[in-house]
Design brief:
alpha+beta; 2 domains; 4 helices; globular
């Protein structure tokens, strides 16, 4: 079983990023400020630490941040997205409960990269789908998937998508 908790923040090149992140016990390996920073959180038994960090960074830096939780043994995933400290998206996936159990907020620009391979060109078969699709789609499902990919809006095909397994 793998449990991963983390946060990703869009830094907007803010020179204060590492100081603000340091206030939350985040230490970078570099001194420059990359456009996006991914933070692996020490979780212990606190599975909400990534979401809280994302919310705090988003509020303090006035930008977008996403908190992640993934437990691969149970195939449970959660994403909480914040913009200027306000939660704008909540996605919860639980394989045993039937898939995407909670979808709140409007689709966000980062979802195109999360749900679809932006380098892939939509094609006629499941081979042109992201690894979030199991490959056994009907023609109608495949058409719906490719329409969602073309629009960059996974909400019309969420029932066809499942989070990718994490590498240990």
């Amino acid at each position: 079983m793998t449990t991963w908790v983390g946060a990703m923040a869009a830094t907007q090149g803010n020179p204060e990023f590492w100081r603000v992140a340091g206030d939350h016990h985040v230490r970078g390996r570099v001194t420059d400020v990359p456009p996006h920073v991914l933070v692996n959180c020490d979780v212990g038994f606190d599975f909400t630490v990534g979401a809280r960090l994302a919310e705090a960074l988003s509020q303090r830096l006035g930008g977008v941040a996403i908190g992640f939780l993934a437990q691969t043994a149970a195939d449970v995933h959660e994403l909480r997205a914040f913009d200027r400290g306000r939660r704008v998206r909540l996605l919860q996936y639980d394989r045993d409960a039937g898939g995407w159990t909670k979808v709140e907020g409007s689709p966000q620009p980062w979802e195109t990269v999360y749900f679809f391979d932006p380098a892939a060109t939509p094609g006629p078969d499941a081979a042109t789908c992201s690894d979030m699709v199991d490959g056994s789609l009907t023609d109608a499902e495949l058409a719906r998937y490719h329409e969602a990919q073309r629009r960059g809006d996974a909400s019309i095909a969420l029932d066809l998508l499942h989070p990718s397994p994490l590498e240990p």
